[in-house]
Specification:
Distance between the termini of chain B: 8 Å
Order of helices and strands of chain A: HHHH
Helix content of chain A: over 70%
Structural class of chain B: mainly alpha
Order of helices and strands of chain B: EHHHHHE
Number of helices of chain B: 5
Oligomer: heterodimer
Largest sheet of chain B: 2 strands, antiparallel
Shape of chain B: globular
Radius of gyration of chain A: 19 Å
Strand content of chain B: 5-15%
Strand content of chain A: under 5%
Distance between the termini of chain A: 27 Å
Strand order of the largest sheet of chain B: 1-2
Number of helices of chain A: 4
């Protein structure tokens, strides 16, 4: 996938999410709608800034997604997934031994765990970026 | 792995950005290479050595301490 296609897809996803946010606000679900819209504005702005920087690099003949970046991303994914899997396994083990009754909202629970995984990836990406 | 990248780049009056553009990598990669923090792939090592009209062995030196 080239740079232009990738940008178009990213903005398309942001637009679809924007429509969902507007629909939620119109339906009276202000908390979710406004939160999503604020997140989208921040994501869209940072995406625009990032794309401008990347375009300048491509124009100069540089490749911002070179082998070093892929190596860092690979290492960060591997380590964060390993930690995530071990943590999940320990929680399941502890839960199966002591078995406390926990009531969770499925989507919130899934969202929190995905955020933890993303956070781990970001932290390890920055760690390896400094190290390599 | 040690290398003579910085020395050779400065000798020809090239900036890190120029070298990155010619090698098709980011400036950050050149910085990491020069600091010896990152070992390049065989493709990149070959490309860089060709830019300076050298062989890979003349540009990159494997330390005896057992680099990975």
């Amino acid at each position: 996938m080239n740079q232009k296609k990738s940008i178009v897809i990213k903005y398309l996803v942001l637009s679809i999410l924007g429509l969902i946010a507007i629909w939620q606000i119109a339906s009276g679900k202000y908390d979710f709608g406004v939160g999503l819209l604020a997140g989208l504005i921040i994501a869209g702005t940072s995406l625009g800034i990032k794309n401008r920087r990347l375009s300048k690099m491509f124009e100069k003949g540089m490749n911002p997604y070179d082998e070093r970046v892929w190596m860092i991303a690979g290492k960060a994914s591997y380590v964060s997934l390993r930690i995530f899997a071990i943590t999940c396994a320990l929680i399941v083990l502890a839960g199966s031994i002591w078995g406390p009754a926990v009531q969770v909202k499925t989507y919130n629970f899934l969202g929190i765990w995905l955020s933890v995984l993303l956070l781990l990836y970001i932290l390890f990406y920055y760690y390896y970026n400094r190290k390599m | 792995m040690e290398n003579r990248l910085k020395e050779l780049r400065e000798r020809v009056g090239m900036t890190q950005e120029d070298l990155a553009a010619q090698a098709g990598v980011s400036r950050q990669t050149i910085i990491s290479l020069e600091k010896g923090k990152y070992n390049p792939s065989i493709n990149l090592a070959y490309k860089l050595s060709r830019l300076f009209d050298l062989t890979i062995e003349e540009l990159f030196l494997l330390k005896e301490s057992g680099d990975q």
